[in-house]
Design brief:
This protein has about 290 residues and is α/β, with parallel strands linked by helices. It is built from 12 helices and 7 strands. The chain has a 5-stranded mixed sheet. Strands 1-2 form a two-stranded parallel sheet. The longest helix is centred in the middle third of the chain and has 20 residues. Bound molecules: 7,8-dihydrobiopterin and fe (iii) ion. The site of 7,8-dihydrobiopterin has 12 residues, from helix 4 and helix 7. Fe (iii) ion (FE) binds next to helix 5 and helix 8.
């Protein structure tokens, strides 16, 4: 199902944006950001796509701790025309697509409490800004994210949001990319999670399968645990081309005639980089 959201809070504007109110963050909030930032940048040095590591520098702003979205947006705007807009949490799909289509990335302003684990039900500022924003400085990925937003507005009209949500999930959130002989991380859901940054590359449990748009959009995904399959792209160019060159309406119709696939499925026609043992399965829900 599309993401479930609570009613729009009174202090949010019609587009669900709110003031970040950077001054209201506590010293503990900033300390949590700094601790997570240091830990993740250290462990991602050899794991993250180079484009992500290049974009990380943008987050080192003049003010310490949690990035001030106004300052961050100024830098990002110069790079690729994107800006970061604070929202209270998950926003309705159409609102989300509308922002992306206009090169506005919506980011939760709250930060997890010090004891909270890597996994959060609602994206906090560490997931959204550390995980998603650095790649928005890469021109190809920036174009892909805007194309995704435009595609989302069209999908909404075709009742195909759930299909497109899988594309977002298996690329923007949990995507892997080939670099030379290696696999690197580019999905924000992995990059903002210490545990999954290790699991997605090193663990024998999950499948790692070559990106194929039709196959990926048939595949359900886990929202309560590490992924049972990761899809691997060759380049951001491939990803952008697959999205802008596809006429999605006939693709959605073809998909309606095909069975959904479970998250751990492997098909004979799959480009299988590694077939998982699925030893890590826990949790039950998939979408
Ligand atoms: N809202 N704030 C926020 N962040 C998201 O990542 C998000 C969202 N609403 C919907 C959504 N993601 C997904 O369901 C999209 O694929 C539609
Ligand atoms: Fe996200």
């Amino acid at each position: 199902m599309a993401s479930l959201t609570s009613p729009r809070p009174d202090h949010a504007a019609a587009d669900w944006s709110v003031a970040q109110d950077w001054a209201s963050y506590s010293a503990q909030d900033h300390a949590t950001w700094d601790r997570l930032f240091e830990r993740q940048t250290k462990m991602l040095r050899d794991r993250a796509a180079p484009e992500f590591l290049d974009g990380l520098d943008m987050l080192r702003l003049t003010k310490p701790g949690i990035p001030d979205f106004a300052e961050l947006s100024e830098r990002l705007m110069q790079r690729t025309g994107w800006q970061v807009v604070a929202v209270p949490g998950l926003v309705p799909d159409r609102v989300f697509f509308e922002h992306l289509a206009n090169r506005r990335f919506v980011a939760g302003r709250f930060i997890r409490s010090p004891d909270q684990s890597d996994y959060l039900a609602e994206p906090d500022v560490f997931h959204d800004v550390f995980g998603h924003v650095p790649l928005l400085a890469d021109p190809l990925f920036a174009d892909y994210m805007q194309a995704y937003g435009e595609g989302g507005l069209r999908a909404d009209g075709l009742g195909a949001i759930d299909r497109l949500a899988r594309l977002y999930w298996y690329t923007v959130e949990f995507g892997l990319i080939r670099r030379g002989g290696d696999m690197k991380l580019y999905g924000a859901g992995i990059l903002s999670s210490y545990g999954e940054s290790v699991f997605a590359l090193d663990d024998p449990s999950p499948n790692r399968i070559g990106f194929d748009l039709n196959r990926l959009m048939r595949t359900r995904y886990r929202i309560d645990d590490y992924q049972q399959s990761y899809f691997v792209i060759g380049s951001f160019e491939d990803l952008l081309r697959a999205t802008v060159e596809t006429d999605f309406a006939p693709l959605y119709r073809a998909l309606d005639g095909q069975e959904d696939l479970e998250p751990d499925a492997v098909l004979p026609e799959d480009r299988v980089y590694s077939r998982g043992t699925q030893d890590h399965v826990s949790g039950v829900e998939s979408k």
